[in-house]
Amino acid sequence: MSFIKYYNETVLDKKKIKFGEFSYQWALHLPKEFYTFFDENYDFIIDEIKNKKDIGNFHNSFCIYKHEKRMGSFCSKLFHTILPSEFPPVDNQIRKEFNLQKEDFITGILILKKGYHLFIKENSELINLIKKALYKNKFDYLRINELSDVRILDMYYWFKLNRDKKINVMCID
Description:
Layout: H1 2-12, H2 19-25, H3 32-40, H4 42-52, H5 55-62, E1 64-65, E2 69-70, H6 72-82, H7 92-97, H8 105-122, H9 124-134, H10 149-172
Antiparallel strand pairs: 1-2
Helix pairs in contact: 8-10
């Protein structure tokens, strides 16, 4: 619930991102020195994302820590937060599900972005079916009417993968 509340505030309500909290809420393990740069350059960073929408260039310019550690997951979640209808918030589990773990993280994001958009375009009835299932009062906190189709599809995969993981663990026990 803590994450959903945070997601709603930053993505739907466009509350200013504090990158230490962003890192915590998205379960990213970022060095303070890395995310402090984003806090100190907030307006420039947000304008860069909104105006250029170029995740590859952005990643290469701002998301490689100490010339070695690539922060692709952070980059995808940040782009999703600012442009939720355009970019999925990719994590390793989703990459693995689509056999993209051998791809560069940014390449994987772009493949998933294109795949999500194609699926949404060709399967609007399935997206609406997922939304309909989530319109129940007990899911009001999700604010389904305000979520992008990209987020709806991403939530579906995330919950499916986590449910399948729990089922597999239960079968092993």
